Amino acid sequence: MWKVYRYAEKDIYDLDGYVIYPKGTWYLIGDYMTIDVAASIVKHEIYLDNCTCQDGDPVPKFKIESALE
Questions:
Q1: pTM to 2 decimals?
Q2: In CA terms, which of 2, 3, 51, 55 is 20 to 30 Å from 34?
């Protein structure tokens, strides 16, 4: 199993206005069975970010960690 994380460049809030992921932390996107699926998730997240990014936005950071036992 593989875990995909994204770095929070700014605080991320829920619909009620509470911080769910504070700035400067890594948060879990999901668990995936193969490294290929995990890589495709990161690729898709980068694609979505490219669709909405503006000048001056930070480059998104991701990491994939092994959860193999």
A1: 0.83
A2: 51
